[in-house]
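Sequence design from tokenized structure. All designs in this work follow the same two-part layout: the structure record, then the generated sequence. An example of the structure record is given first.
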């Protein structure tokens, strides 16, 4: 034994480090505890050798502890334990791995549950937490619609903004100009959620009517009258006309007569009790815009002229197929009488166009021919031929309307002859003159009935043929 110690102590040294036989060394290059017995350590080693041996053992233990506590060593040990290979040291504090353990693998943290046990999926929450009452979910498998009581289903219509309002209202107003049914407009408006933009319907309808004829403006006034108190209040109407008075400088660019038209709308609305009577009074001395002042002056003049009349029915004139036939006949008679007095063809043309009844122009031809038959002298014949010729050339009276007017006179000529004995001769001369001026066709001239100038011999005439 002494010889072995001498051999070990007398081994060659290289750079102050002892060299050992690798065959007898452990995996770390040092002898393990199992290679040396307690007798050899306690009985035969010197104190220096014992201290050196203990230092080597402590260094080896530290290296093992460092290796087992590293993350890579933990993963390697886990994979080896799963595959059945030899893992880390079972005596190491990190040697045994519990997969269901919620503690940190790196040894960090306090070792408490995440979020105090209140977080994560499928947990009940922290202790003492009080939840609010939640509405039952219809997709819940345990949902029972009978247990929920009576269910009320309602259709919610979103409120329209300005762009959507223009897109929806303009087709409604244009369609109303075709059929003139205010009840249908009211029904369509109920389906829309106008909300705070409800007053804008009136201003949009009035502005749109500026681009159309007088008959459409008459329909617009009727629409405002029928909607007042049902869909629109006086405050809504007043707000709409206030806005239009402010927008007159822009409206006049497209419609030069916008101030006069708006003034007529205001007067008609006040007469129909759509606007309050105090609407004009609150503007006195407070209007700076010349166009707005012109519109208000126009309304004031109309109201002062029609003070004793409750409704300004004729503020837009008489026109369109909405008027009664008797009223249209009366207006055409008045038109022809004024023409015979003044001889102004352009004024007669304007009046006929304002009536807006092109399908009823045959009545003007009929009344003109009858007026010629009932008149005295050649002046009326010449003036009527001139008027019909002007209307024919400008296309105001079509061929069909002209033929229908003359044909109606042809059919009623025997009855007219009772009151006008010379109706046949006047008719023949008038038809010949119209044909010469290219007012009527040759077929229409030939269709004119003529009275026989000779009659058969009757008793007591002495056999003479009277002409």
């Amino acid at each position: 034994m002494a010889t072995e110690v001498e051999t070990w102590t007398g081994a060659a040294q290289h750079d102050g480090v002892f060299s050992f036989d690798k065959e007898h060394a452990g995996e770390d290059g040092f002898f393990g505890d199992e290679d040396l017995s307690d007798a050899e350590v306690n009985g035969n080693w010197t104190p220096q050798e014992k201290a050196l041996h203990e230092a080597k053992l402590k260094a080896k233990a530290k290296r093992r502890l460092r290796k087992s506590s590293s993350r890579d060593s933990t993963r390697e040990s886990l994979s080896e334990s799963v595959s059945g290979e030899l893992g880390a040291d079972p005596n190491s504090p990190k040697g045994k791995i519990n997969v269901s353990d919620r503690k940190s693998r790196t040894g960090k943290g306090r070792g408490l549950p995440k979020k105090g046990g209140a977080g994560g999926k499928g947990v009940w929450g922290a202790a003492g937490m009080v939840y609010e009452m939640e509405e039952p979910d219809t997709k819940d498998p345990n949902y029972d619609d009978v247990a929920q009581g009576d269910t009320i289903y309602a259709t919610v219509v979103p409120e329209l903004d300005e762009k959507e309002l223009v897109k929806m209202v303009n087709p409604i107003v244009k369609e109303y100009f075709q059929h003139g049914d205010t009840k249908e407009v009211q029904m369509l408006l109920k389906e829309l959620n106008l909300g705070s933009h409800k007053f804008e319907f009136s201003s949009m309808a009035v502005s749109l009517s500026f681009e159309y004829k007088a008959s459409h403006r008459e329909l617009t006034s009727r629409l405002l009258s029928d909607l007042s108190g049902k869909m629109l209040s006086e405050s809504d109407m007043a707000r709409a006309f206030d806005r239009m008075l402010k927008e007159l400088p822009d409206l006049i660019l497209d419609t030069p007569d916008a101030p006069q038209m708006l003034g007529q709308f205001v007067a008609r609305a006040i007469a129909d009790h759509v606007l309050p009577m105090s609407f004009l009074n609150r503007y006195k001395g407070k209007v700076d815009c010349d166009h707005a002042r012109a519109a208000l002056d126009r309304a004031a003049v109309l109201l002062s002229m029609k003070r004793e009349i409750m409704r300004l029915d004729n503020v837009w004139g008489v026109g369109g197929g909405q008027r009664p036939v008797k009223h249209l006949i009366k207006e055409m008679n008045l038109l022809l009488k004024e023409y015979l007095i003044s001889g102004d063809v352009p004024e007669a043309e304007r009046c006929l166009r304002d009536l807006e009844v092109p399908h009823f122009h045959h009545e003007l031809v009929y009344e003109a021919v009858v007026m010629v038959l009932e008149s005295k002298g050649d002046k009326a014949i010449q003036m009527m031929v001139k008027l019909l010729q002007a209307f024919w050339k400008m296309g105001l009276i079509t061929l069909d309307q002209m033929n229908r007017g003359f044909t109606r006179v042809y059919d009623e000529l025997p009855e007219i002859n009772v009151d006008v004995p010379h109706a046949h001769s006047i008719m023949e001369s008038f038809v010949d003159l119209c044909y010469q001026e290219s007012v009527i066709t040759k077929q229409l001239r030939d269709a004119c009935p003529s009275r026989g100038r000779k009659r058969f011999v009757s008793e007591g005439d002495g056999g003479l043929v009277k002409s």
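DSSP finds 19 helices and two strands in the chain. We note this feature because it recurs in several other targets discussed in the main text.
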